[in-house]
Amino acid sequence: MEILFVHGALVRDGAWWWQPTAELFHGSTGIRSRAVALPSCGEGPAGHPDGGLAEDAAALRAALDDSDGAIVVGHSYGGTVIAEAGQHDAVAHLLYVSSYLPDVGSAQAGIMADEPDPVSIGPAGDGVLAVAGYDAASFGARFLQDADGNTQRAAWGRVTAQSAGAFVTPTTAAGWQDVDSTSLVCTEDRSTTVGLKRAHAARATRSVDVPTGHHPFITRPDLVVEQLELLLGGATA
User: Fold this and answer.
1) pLDDT greater than 70 at residue 18
2) Residues contacting residue 4 through CB under 8 Å, at least 6 positions apart
3) Which residues pair with 181 in a beta bridge?
4) Which of 64, 57, 163 is CA-nearest to residue 109?
5) Rounded distance between C-alpha atoms, residue 117 and residue 190, angstroms
6) Which one, of 37, 23, 8, 19, lies nearest residue 154 by Cα?
7) What is the arithmetic mean of pLDDT over 106-113?
8) In what order do the strands lie in the sheet with 128-131?
9) Looking at residues 149-173, what average pLDDT do you find?
10) Antiparallel, parallel or unpaired: β 121-123 and 91-97
11) Can you say whether residue 105 is alpha, beta or left, with left for phi > 0 and alpha for psi between -120 and 50 degrees?
12) What is the distance between the alpha carbons of residues 124 and 82, in angstroms, rounded to a whole number?
C-alpha cells in the first residue's frame, strides 16, 4: 500500500506540498508517498506546460499501473484529474482535499464558473494560463493564511503556469463513482466557497470537516494523517 498525491492547479512539485503529511504518515505507519507529476504544469518530459487534463490523467493511470495498491489523494484540481483517470484496480480509496468530484462532461473552468470571487488567472502566452494579480503575500493570505510566512513564500515559489487544456477540457470519465471515498471540506478555505466544496463532497462516500485553509496537508498534517490512518484500516481489512 502507498499514497499517491495529485496536486492542484497552477503549482508544481507535489512532493513539497505533501511532505509534512508524508513524513508524519510514514513515521506512524511506515507507508511511503509518491506525488504524481502533471504534464500540464510543466512536470512532464517536455519540461514546460504540455498537454492538459487528458495527459495529467494518463500520468495518474501510469502511476497506478506501477502500484500494488494506493490511497489516492486529490487536492483541488487533482480531483478532476482523478475523475478523468477513471476507475483502476490499484485504487484502495480516494481522499479528496478541498476538491471536486465532477460528473462526466465537466471542465474545471465550468466547475468554478459560479464562484463569487474566483481566483484570478489570465493568459501567459503559448496556450498557458497563470495566476494574475498575486504576489507572495496576497497568495499566502488567500491560500495559506494558516501557515507561517516562510511557508507562504516557499509555496509562492512553486506557483507555475499551466496549460489551458487543463481548465477547458471536459471530463470523459468519473473515476470517483462506485469507489470508496472521503472528502475533506476545509471550512476556512479562502480559495473557493464552502458551498461548492460541500456540493461535491456530498458525492463522496463520507465527508469530514477540517478547520483549515486550502492546504491542510501543510498546515494541519495531523488531521490529514488521522483520516489516512482510518482509511488504511478500511483498505487493509
Assistant:
1) yes
2) 33, 34, 35, 36, 60, 63, 64, 67, 70, 71, 72, 73
3) 94
4) 163
5) 9
6) 19
7) 97
8) 121-123, 128-131, 162-163
9) 98
10) unpaired
11) left
12) 26
pTM above 0.90, yes or no: yes
Report d(CA 140, CA 188) in Å as an integer.
Answer: 14
The three cell numbers of residue 83 are: 475523475
The length of the chain is: 237
Instruction: Say if residue 89's pLDDT is above 60.
Output: yes
Q: Tell me the three cell numbers of residue 180.
A: 470508496
Per residue in 52-78, pLDDT (tens digit) is: 999 999 999 999 999 999 999 999 999
Q: How far is CA 98 from the centre of its chain?
A: 8
pLDDT score for 234: 67
Q: Cell 503556469 maps to which residue?
A: 161
Amino acid at 235: A
pLDDT at 233 over 90: no
Spatial contact of 178 and 204, defined as CB atoms under 8 Å apart: no
H helical segments located in the chain: 14-29, 53-65, 78-85, 108-111, 136-143, 149-156, 165-168, 194-201, 216-219, 221-236
Chain center to CA of 202: 17
Distance CA 111, CA 102 (A): 8
Taking CA atoms, 141 is separated from 138, 151, 194, in Å, by 5, 12, 17
- The whole-chain average pLDDT of the chain stands at 97
- In the structure grid, which three cell numbers stand for residue 231, read together? 482509511
Q: How confident is the model at residue 237 (pLDDT cuts 50, 70, 90)?
A: very low
| Number of CB atoms found within 10 A of residue 115's CB | 13
